[in-house]
Amino acid sequence: MISITAKKREPGNASEDRAASLIPGVLYGPEIKPISVSLDYNTFDKLYNEAGEATLIDFFIEGEKDPTKVLIQDVERDPIKQIFTHIDFRQIKMGEEMTATVPLNFIGEPEAVKILGGTLITSLDTVDVRCLPNDLVSHIDVDLTVLKTFEDFISVSGLKLPAGITVDDSLEALVVKVIPPMTDDQFKALDESQVGDVSTVAVDGEKKDGEETAEGAEAVDEKKKEEKKD
């Protein structure tokens, strides 16, 4: 079982934690009140690369003997540096059905791409599932070799699910397919369709009536985030 140890922290010192190479976070669940915690950045980075968001974790708090079974529920990153800024851990009750978002792992090469020169189009890269905690898997494999023609596709109903896993998403939802090669005219038409209406674009920081400037909106949003995390 993968595990990690965190320290309890006082709400309101999230900025100090980040300055000390710690990540502020919160632990919550059906049997515990929310607990503000902080984690070593490098330790969590390694754990996240290994566990992702669909693996049960033994969550230890310094000074306490017994761990709490958790999932990484939410990860926030700095939009520019892409470093972790806040983590939510959700307590999981063993023996009770749970929900999770599981990534899809695409394997193999479609003949419709390799031989026919088509382009692989992925509509879903995760699925929402229900299962008992012991049945949770870190990913679900999707075999792309079944895509032999441009008429072939894989929907949610076509996924090969491990025992004990039930999908919460629509069974008719498209997961992946291959489309025929596009002609030069089709590419040109696609490019032209993506050209926006320049009349809606503000110039050099101008704002339209009733709109906030980007800087003002970001400042308000950042303040709300800090209030939530602290």
UniProtKB/TrEMBL annotation:
What CDD domains does its record include? Ribosomal_L25_TL5_CTC
Q: Which family does it belong to?
A: Belongs to the bacterial ribosomal protein bL25 family. CTC subfamily.
Keywords (A to Z) from UniProt: Ribonucleoprotein, Ribosomal protein, RNA-binding, rRNA-binding
Q: What residue stretch is flagged as signal peptide?
A: none
Taxonomically, the superkingdom here is Bacteria
InterPro entries recorded: Rbsml_bL25/Gln-tRNA_synth_N, Ribosomal_bL25/Gln-tRNA_synth, Ribosomal_bL25_b-dom, Ribosomal_bL25_C, Ribosomal_bL25_long, Ribosomal_L25_dom, Ribosomal_uL5_bac-type
The protein depicted here goes by the name Large ribosomal subunit protein bL25
Record flagged with keyword Cytoplasm: no
